[in-house]
Amino acid sequence: MTATPPALGARAWATVVLVGLVGQLAWTIENMYLNVFVYNTITTDPTVIAVLVAASAVAATLATLAVGAWSDRVGRRREFIAVGYVLWGATTAAFGLVRPQLPDGVALGAPEAARAVGVAVVTIVVLDCVMSLFGSGANDAAFNAWVTDSTTPANRGRVDGVLATLPLVSMLIVFGLLDGLTQRGDWELFFGIVGATTAAVGVVAWFLVRDRRPLERVADGYLASLVHGLRPSTMRAHPRLYVTLLAVAILGVSSQVYLPYLIIYLQRFLRIDAYALALGVVLILASALSVAAGRFIDRVGKVRAILPLTALLLAGLVGMFLARGLVSVIVAGTVMMGGMLGAGAAAAATVRDHTPAGRVGMVQGLRMVALVLVPMVVGPFIGAAVIVGANETYVDLGVERQVPTPWMFLFAAAIALLVAVPVTWLRRLPEERP
Fold first, then answer.
1. Could you tell me if residue 216 is inside a domain?
2. Which phi and psi angles does 205 have, rounded to 5°?
3. Residue 359 has pLDDT above 80, yes or no
4. Were both Cys, which of 5, 32, 82, 288 would link to 154 (CB 3.0–4.6 Å)?
């Protein structure tokens, strides 16, 4: 039997919740509402959304690899978190300024309009990449490394269970307080509020975050530290870490098949006018499930918890494929989101447990490859192919527009089934020394 998990401390919990929540607030805007913004104001082509997601994933991964190795070298996280959040907020606020600049009297189908849309697409992709550099350096690299520094194997399931709820809580805040701005088309204020909040938390983080001392620092050079995790010798030395990252990647690809198109699906395919209410209820209930999952993970063990929580995710995905009304969407969506976050929390806590000493920041870069780069490059294009293949459309102001279909949930479920392979492999690998 294990003893009661050691307390994290009020200041550390405050850092986890405040810095983590506002970071997820900014990621919610980028991962979900930026897609809606592009769909509503620039182009409805799902391939553009897939390119946007993939390009930002590449930028985010490179930033996490670079900043993670850098913070390992200097042995500090606070400065990267605080300064990064301020710059992250500034670039987030700039999203609302991007629009196709159509000359007066130019029709939507004219070549001039196509060029204006093309310029807007390039601008939003570049800006998203810049934003992802700052956001991932601050949040995915520095903040997540700080969480690993500040926790122990005994309390990581609980901490990662709370962290897993923060994306849902952030969505709930956005839906409850800010969605009306998007409905009215007031995108400048929408992005501006989130950007200002993110920057303000960066200032607060300068005084709130305390690095855990002393951090074990690596002795090799920066470039050697940067590529250390990509070496075959490192993979052979830490097989449990890399097999767990494979499980993280599979779960991530599954989620990215449908997440970029979820709000559009509820709006345009199911025609649920109260989609914000539906998502709000789902987020509250799924957050409660995720917190309960954190306790379940600590009780039964992180690796043993992954498959039962993935089974919950599969049930929710099948339910979303069948759901057509408000109530059925709420039920299926709660199961889907709860399973997705619970399985992700178990896998994330396992990654922390198998992080080599002195390489915490480096592992955040590897985690981004598995959690962001691979899923966001592969998943949205699978989703876009499913949408294009289904060829469901509607007409808006005389323009035929493609719309997401429920088949994307079945494709996501098929991918999620593959997580059984690395989990079975992981159970057979011998335990490693910390």
1. no
2. -60, -30
3. no
4. 5
At residue 327, does pLDDT exceed 70? Answer: yes
pLDDT of res. 339:
92
Q: How many CB atoms lie within 10 A of CB 76?
A: 18
- Around 386, how many Cα atoms within 13 Å sit in the side-chain half-sphere? 21
pLDDT for the residue numbered 219: 59
Six token digits for residue 293: 């999952």
pLDDT over threshold 50, residue 1: no
* Mean pLDDT, rounded, for 289-299: 80
Strand partners, 394: 401
Task: Return the amino acid letter for 229.
Answer: G
Residue 410 belongs to a domain with what CATH number? 1.20.1250.20
Rounded to two decimals, what is the model's pTM? Answer: 0.71
**Which has the higher per-residue pLDDT, 243 or 102?**
243
Report pLDDT digits (tens) over 407-424. Answer: 999 999 999 999 999 999
Q: State how far Cα 179 lies from the chain centre.
A: 19
Q: Which of 149, 147, 187, 163 has its CA nearest to residue 36?
A: 187
**Does 33 have pLDDT greater than 50?**
yes
Number of H helices, E strands in the chain: 20, 2
- Number of structural domains in the chain: 1
Tokens representing 309 are 């929580």
Three-state secondary structure call for residue 38: helix
* Residue 5 included in any domain: no
Within a domain: residue 1? no
Domain of 253?
10-211+221-428
CA-to-CA distance for 425 and 434, rounded, in angstroms? Answer: 19
CA–CA dist 422, 236 (Å, integer):
16
Evaluate whether residue 129 is within a structural domain: yes
**Of 115, 364, 348, 341, nearest to 228 (Cα)?**
364
Q: Does residue 274 sit in helix, strand or coil?
A: coil
Q: Which residues contact 291 (CB under 8 A, 6 or more apart)?
A: 161, 162, 165
Beta bridge partners of 370: none
Decide: 254 and 376 in contact? Cβ < 8 Å.
no
